[in-house]
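Trying the structure run again after the queue cleared.
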Amino acid sequence: MENRKTYGMKDPEGQEKRLTGKIALITGAGSGIGRAIAERFAREGARIGINYCHNREGAAETLRRVEAAGSEGLLLKADVAREAEVASMIEHLLDHFGAIDILVNNSGIGTSRSPDRVAEILAEDWDRVLAVNLKAVMLTSKHALPRMIRQNQGSIINISSIRGLLGNPTLASYCASKGGVVLLSKQMALDYANNGIRVNAICPGFVLTEMLEGYINKQENPQAARASFAAMSALGRIGRPEEIAAVAVFFASDASSFVTGVALPVDGGYTAYGMRDIL
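Done. Tokens:
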């Protein structure tokens, strides 16, 4: 049985690094929230497996930032919805780093060809969203868990969404997949607690990633669209990827040692509202 925890290391400014000696795998780390988590984990002392599927240029930029933070990164190309590719990715990570302490299941997509309503969505679009958003969480966890069990410790952090907690018109497959991530996280937390493995979900609200920025800029009035998204949170603004990364550090570190099975909204108060459109 292995125990690889390291305490008390500090950065040059004297601040304690909370993930020193840890190995993290982050899926979909070529941009947005995944990149922000990779960069923040690197600053906290972790070495990073940077997964990407198509966005090699973005993943290379994430690697550059990880190295600039004084850590080591490893590019890992894999479609996380395909088990053979996931198994190969985990094997490559373990061959290179020798362990996996933290798994962040961040990859996610929406439909691109058909409306995301049950009466209109193409079956293949539904299948792809569920595969990338939900099945991939199972696959990467399945292949990471044996090493975590052997180490008798680990933290799995699944990136869900406020749409895993609340419904939304025209987001059938997305809501179904992200809701599945929430309950799968709770279920896994129960199965592996006795192995020293904690499993939690983060449910971001509207966060200013490249994807959201692109959507806003395509609107007839981008300024009005941006204001509309900002107004949907109680704090009156859109979130930043770095704010999701800060929560991921909490779940990855010993600061959350008694926290498992949680689905935490990080949404500026969006889900605290009730009947916002009626009252």
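The chain has one domain: 23-206+241-268. Worth checking whether this holds up in the mutant runs.
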